[in-house]
Design a protein that fits this description.
Blueprint (H helix, E strand, L loop, with lengths): L2 H17 L4 E2 L23 H16 L12 E7 L18 H8 L1 H8 L4 E4 L3 E2 L2 E2 L4 H11 L5 E3 L7 H4 L7 H11 L11 H12 L4 H17 L19 H14 L1 E5 L12 E4 L7 H4 L21 H9 L4 E4 L10 H9 L3 E7 L17 H11 L5 E6 L7 H4 L4 E4 L7 H9 L51 E8 L3 E2 L4 E10 L5 E11 L10 E10 L4 E9 L5 E2 L5 E2 L3 E7 L2 E7 L9
Parallel strand pairs: 1-2, 2-3, 3-6, 8-9, 8-10, 10-11, 11-12, 14-22
Antiparallel strand pairs: 4-5, 7-12, 13-15, 15-18, 16-17, 16-21, 19-20, 21-22
Length: about 600
Amino acid sequence: RNTGLMKQAAAITAYEVRASGIPWNFNPVLGMGRQPLWPRLWETFGEDPYLTSEMAEAYVKGSEGDDNNVAAKDKVAACMKHYLGYSVPLSGKDRTPAWIPERMLRDIFLPPFKRAVDAGVHTVMVNSTEINGIPAHSDHYLLTEVLRNELGFKGFVVSDWEDVNRLYSRDKVAASRQEAVKMAVMAGVDMSMVPYDFSFYNDLLDLANSGEVPMWRIDEAVGRILRVKYQLGLFENPYPDKSLAANVSSEASVQTSLQAAREAMTLLKNRDNFLPLRKDMKVLVTGPTANLRSVLNGGWTYTWQGNAESLYPKEKLTILEAVQAKLGKSQVTYQPGADFDKVLDLAKTVEAARAADVAVVCIGEATYCETPGNIHDLNISPAQMELALALEKSGTPVVLVLVEGRPRVITPAVEDASAILMAYLPGPEGGRAVADVLFGDYNPGGKLPITYPRSSNDLVCYDYKPVEIDDSNKMNPLWLFGHGLSYTTYTYQNLKLDKKKIGEDETLNVSLTVTNSGKMAGKEVVELYLSDLVRSVSPPVRQLKRFQGVYLKPGESQTVQFTLSSADLTFHGRNNKITLEAGEFMVAVGDLSDTFELVLPQDKAQK
């Protein structure tokens, strides 16, 4: 929850991409991470549209600059993707159909793309599959009517890999490859991604010569592409600035990577303040993610699937190596314990645990991306669960470290774990970040961007509808979106609303005092949630509307302020139009809450 750090990370990425001679970066991913089976969940910013929108703007501005001057030698054209609805396939499998009602599409999935467009993003990549039976690459409504006419996007649209041809070969909405090209181009696709297959070019040339694709559409697409190339300065200077190479992987960039990993670390459980660990402890480190660099980085790293372990720089530490560096090798024992599919000398691992003061059990996922990452079961692999349960029965306290791109179900191991740390895919400095948190050199302050399910069939997001928690459907995740513990305690007090009633053109100022009431300095992300108590379309129980990080020393207090407007109270009504309704709303921050009323004129009770 740090947009400044996100913007900085995007700027570093842009610098290093441009230094390598590439002026275009296929990021940010703005799909909503609301289907935990999906193998690209880890590429998203999570399940919430407001959080994703904030990160979208930060990433675009970091990549392109505040003024979107992408001709600058250290900036690139960003590419928001995958437009639209790619991230919630009904089956959970990559590139399979999604079914998203229009209201949900507009309330949840469209806002991050709108924010990126408003931030000046130059390009967009299309959803690789279909929504409601219509493949996105053939969807004129989404690619032209919504993207161009409603959102006002001015850049160019690029296909995803091979997906124009797949309108014919896979989706069966085109009778031939040439018809697929016509459908895509007339729907609004300006560029085919595949660079070394000339069939798109040949088919489009035939279609243009026959008049089936009019020249105005060719001119329009070419003009959009050339405009971005011109804005990038490629006609005047197509080559990279060689001077940039000197600062690739600079120490400042490495420190930013480390800080990003530290801030992401999310402490899910800490029974009796078991963490942080003392540095005089004897530690067993075990599990399949304990001594691999690849799993800290995930897919799209060095290779497509990111699993070429030999390519990773040896100076980047695994979790095991980082713990050894912090304590000294004499205090640390390593046993593999298990790989992702089978246990490895379990009796020896249990014996090593009994000889240690604590067992750090690193479990999670092997590297993957896209379709090879498809799974049939959200439960963590049986071998890893067997390892965790055996060590929990050893009598030695167990700390679970989750290195994973999806919330794999670990419920049987939760109760007896002394602590659980969610590390996600923390990047090249992830090993150091995990060790820093485990041993108290960094106080964790991360908050879950997703809801962590208790079972593989309990897949509900935090902004659920009231019916989803009634007596028969009670929602019961392990941890909700926004959960995250600290080594200190924070006290929220004095929630104040400057008005009890606001009109359509007024703002509501919300303030509260946050105090570090513990013994360790730390950063707390203060989140403001809004609930619409009654409206014409059943409301979510709560929605994130603002967040702010505050760093506090022990005993220090700070006043945190938020401002809401009537735009924060809108939704898409029964007619699928943006709607503002008079009524009562609740603001909640931490364990504090208060209500206010939106008042509209009698003839505008619903607008």
